[in-house]
Design a protein that fits this description.
Helix content: 40-55%
Strand order of the largest sheet: 3-4-5-6-7
Oligomer: single chain
Largest sheet: 5 strands, antiparallel
Structural class: alpha+beta
Number of helices: 12
Number of strands: 7
InterPro entries: PAB
Strand content: 5-15%
Distance between the termini: 26 Å
């Protein structure tokens, strides 16, 4: 199903609900056994195979080690109380930010599970897959001053890190802006694109800002996520006052896009839809 510049996976309501029900029931029945299997490093791979009925990401164990090395607490994949049903918890930071995988109920066969940060009212996309997230973490670590970087993250990433990123490549690229490097060499990230839009506006380059905002909403970039459309519509509403049908955009979000993938308040979007 096409919606503006984005995509929502088309399937029968019965299929989606059945997948969701089975996943929640399996999670509840296995939660205790998964928690008790290993308090320090829960078996996320087995959980994904046996409970989520999905293919575990190849470098998931390396990502878990990486998250632990940067100070996050690895948590059981069965510890899902208060979370959206399709989130598979990985780790929690000192600020209580929860990193998880998102198990789409009806994802296309070749689509990998995205890495997300779970919010009270939804999720924020961190990376399209585990490898992309590892790659970004290593680039950002490498971009730090040598006095700030201990090399622990590269050690934790081990062979997966060596495969995805060679230390020193950021400096060799002669790209001074890390956001530009990420977009060119690693992949597209929602927060980076949003930051570029706001930077263009701050410089007074409204054309580049609006072009970047439209690029953000292209259907192939972040399929299934509503955040790009919400952000772009808010930008248009704030900076471009015309007779454009802004409420119509928000009505699309509320009627055609799963509310749990909206980052931010659904109430705010509802209000904008009736302006």
């Amino acid at each position: 199903m096409k919606i503006g510049g984005g995509v929502v996976y088309e399937c029968s309501r019965a299929t989606a609900l059945r997948t969701l029900f089975l996943f929640r029931r399996s999670t509840a029945s296995s939660s205790r056994s998964v928690r008790s299997s290993s308090s320090s490093f829960p078996d996320h791979i087995s959980f994904i195979k046996d409970v989520a009925a999905a293919q575990p990401p190849q470098h998931l164990s390396h990502l878990l080690k990486l998250l632990k090395a940067r100070g996050e607490s690895i948590i059981s994949p069965g510890a899902k109380q208060g979370l959206i049903p399709l989130a598979i918890p990985l780790a929690k930071s000192s600020s209580d930010a929860l990193t998880a995988l998102l198990r789409w109920p009806t994802a296309p066969p070749r689509m990998e599970m995205p890495v997300v940060e779970v919010w009270k009212h939804g999720v924020r996309l961190l990376a399209k897959n585990v490898d992309q997230f590892i790659h970004r973490i290593l680039v950002e670590e490498d971009a730090k001053n040598l006095l700030e970087s201990s090399g622990m993250l590269f050690h934790a990433a081990a062979e997966a890190g060596e495969k995805l990123y060679k230390k020193g490549n950021f400096a060799k690229s002669q790209i001074s802006d890390i956001d530009v490097y990420l977009l060119r060499k690693v992949g597209l990230f929602p927060d980076v694109l949003e930051r570029k839009v706001m930077q263009h506006f701050a410089k007074g380059d409204h054309v580049s800002a609006l072009v970047t905002g439209e690029f953000y909403t292209k259907k192939e970039h972040f399929p299934g996520f509503a955040r790009p459309f919400v952000f772009n519509a808010e930008i248009l509403l704030k900076f471009v006052v015309t007779s454009f049908d802004y409420p119509g955009i928000y009505v699309h979000y509320l009627t055609d896009v799963c509310c749990y993938i909206l980052r931010g308040s659904v109430v705010l979007v509802s209000e904008l839809a009736v302006i």
